[in-house]
Amino acid sequence: MKKILPGLLVVLAALIAWPSQAQVQLRDNYPSSYTVKRGDTLWDISGMYLRDPWLWPEIWQVNPQINNPHLIYPGDLLTLVYVDGKPRLVLNRGTMKLSPNMRTSPLGSAISAIPADVLNGFLSRSRVLDKETLELAPYVVAGSDHRLVSGAGDRIYGRGDFDPATRFYGIYRPGQVFRDPVTREKLGMQAHEIGTGQIIAEDDQVATVVLNYSNEEVRNSDRFLPMANEEVPSTFYPKPPESDINGHIIAVEAGVANVGRFDVVTINRGEREGLQVGDVLGVDRAGELVKDPVKRGSVQLPSERAGLMMVFKVFEKVSYGLILEAERPLSVMDEVSNP
Questions:
Q1: How far is CA 133 from each of CA 128, 170, 190, rounded to the nearest angstrom?
Q2: Distance from the CA of 281 to the CA of which of 183, 314, 317, 320 falls in 20 to 30 A?
Q3: Element (H, E) at 57
Q4: How far apart are CA 217 and CA 223, in angstroms?
Q5: In the chain, what are the domain boundaries?
Q6: Distance from CA of residue 87 to its chain's centroid?
């Protein structure tokens, strides 16, 4: 026998306040109902209902039964209803069989807040640190059998001051040196992870290392850094920053000229400015420098909002962000600020 479970009809959003009462505002063309599909994200769904999708936690954070976005699954039906004249978003999972195996879908099938798979590789393969730190780190002095390049399973030899308590190292290649485009302050050097290895022997500052894996060929002069024990979030929660942020895009992953949705960018703001993982920033397209046809000379046009980004990895002076929305192509030197 099948029954409709009362507990499965859950209020996701207790209240979406009117514009005069709160920041959360409904879109004019929101759907009256929507069935969640595989591949959807909370960001996309929130964008259907809210003018400002980064405020999506306001939709369901007051409901004690829905405190985790992993509870939203493909097939769930979202319906906008009005209670006492105020809008509420309701989740209906419909009719289910009362049994211990009520849900057969694994937790991994729940939709995420943003497409985290876009970030998986980038989260672990790149770091930003002082140029001096990287230059003083131990380095690859040779490969086995005099090879100039090595790969997973090969032995390589490192020279320098290895930490006696550390056996596992990442192998990194120096990349771009970041500078603040306004103050010219050195913000750090990007280090790309090439692979990982384990020290199996050490003799007079020369260590024998077995490569556990490599995503490209390891070369002489690549640097060794202790494996970072950083926690990588499985789910990101987009939210407005707690502090005032004003900065610029200073680099783009893969060096592309025009930045679009789901591209990764580097900005010149980090932990010292109060940025946190999940912070959403507006991206303003820098105004063009044009000639004044009447008074002559040049005029700087004002910047215009052109997109949104979410910070997903924060260092002391810089951060990596994912472009979530782009109304037009973005580029280096575009401005970022509170949304």
A1: 10, 14, 11
A2: 183
A3: helix 57-60
A4: 13
A5: 2-113, 122-226, 246-337
A6: 31
Residues 197 and 170: their CA atoms lie apart, in Å, by 6
The CATH number, out of the four listed (2.40.30, 3.30.1490, 2.40.128, 2.60.40), of the domain defined by the range 246-337: 2.40.30
Residues linked to residue 89 through DSSP beta bridges, in sequence order: 13, 80
Q: Specify whether the CB–CB gap between 138 and 200 falls below 8 A.
A: no
Under 8 Å CB-to-CB from 149, ≥6 apart: which residues?
143, 217, 218, 219
Q: In 3-state terms, what secondary structure has residue 336?
A: strand
pLDDT, one tens digit per residue, over 103-155 is 444 445 667 777 666 666 666 578 899 989 999 999 999 988 777 777 788 99
Q: Which residue has the tokens 């989260």?
A: 123
In the chain, what are the helix, strand and coil shares in percent, each to the nearest 5?
15, 40, 45
Name the residue with higher pLDDT: 318 or 63: 318
- Tell me how long the chain is: 339
Both tokens of 66, joined, read 């829905």
Distances (CA, A) of 257 to 254, 302, 327: 9, 21, 16
Query: Which amino acid, residue 205?
Result: Q
